């Protein structure tokens, strides 16, 4: 049996556990933001991804992302379907110090949370049955190809595109898929639906922030100086974005809002994600501040346009992922990470163009595919719930459960 490096393997298992924790954290975050009749309806959409995505990842997902190079580098092959050929002695080719099983598990956690991010946009409007179909098809045709193209030595990676932990693969694709979903299903009947539990939002944010250290620092797939750089960049960008959002909101509406502070932190986390291991600490500060401003303005723009993205998935994750990828093209420097490239500030005009083109293409594809996928799904099962179901709330009408005890009868 191969003697893998115990320290690196242990760290990656910890990072995997942290990323796993982000999906329950997301469920709490969205559950707190939801109206009281739709808490469980939104939470189950995150938790069910943990089950179904794991099944898909074992059957074909891992192989399609990280085995071979088919269709000109658009997707992998099926040589590792059902984990064929992978055993206790299989080393991860990108870092032979860890078992391939660890890399399999780590990347699986990214696949789990990405489609779950989308659900905050169409809260209390989409049937559970149609969401399950959406969950499977969207991963097959959006997440798997982009994970392969960027992280699986596919087309975009070979073109020179870099994405440290998921600005393109996770946040941009999910954010613009969310926008397409909102436009397809239309507005809620009751758009004035305040959060049912701000403490629950705070718990969810704390879990997301904590898990994000595994999300970003773990993406180095090793334990070295770049791991530490990604870790501290993550915290700093989130903190500066949170404070920036707080100041803007406090200035404009004259009250310091906890939900605004928490939303700003998540925006900063999403924005630093593609750049975390490629930029300096000073650049992370700028990225955080820029994120707080731009994502706040994106949410304001969304509201003016009348897009009923209930939990601001597009404004926070979609815009944050795009912004972070473009700023990676500006601030990246090889003195931080030699496997990256120099950004626009350091003479890397071509790299900047590649980053910008890649993220724009990803957004367009995710938006168009998601819209037409929902259109097709609707032929098999209604995507949008009926007015009576929406009025009653998905918790009761679909799931037959309630988040809180309504008293003894």
Tell me what the structure shows.
This protein is mainly alpha-helical and 409 residues long. It has helices at residues 6-33, 39-66, 100-118, 128-151, 155-159, 167-185, 198-217, 225-253, 258-272, 281-305, 313-331, 349-380, 387-392, 394-399. The chain is globular. The mean pLDDT is 96.
Key phrases:
409 residues
Provide a quick synopsis of the model.
This protein has 409 residues and is an all-alpha fold. The protein has 14 helices and no strands. The protein is globular, with a radius of gyration of 20 Å.
Helix content: 55-70%
What is the overall number of helices?
Answer: 14
Query: Quick one: biggest sheet?
Result: none
Q: What sort of overall outline do the alpha carbons produce when their principal axes are compared?
A: globular
Radius of gyration: 20 Å
Distance between the termini: 61 Å
Indicate the proportion of strand residues. Answer: under 5%
CATH superfamily: Ammonium transporter AmtB like domains
Structural class: mainly alpha
Count of separate structural domains:
1
What would the average pLDDT be, to the nearest integer?
96
Q: Uncertain spans, ≥5 residues at pLDDT below 50?
A: none
Would you identify the CATH architecture?
Answer: Orthogonal Bundle
Quick one: CATH class? Mainly Alpha
Q: Please tally the β strands and state the result.
A: 0
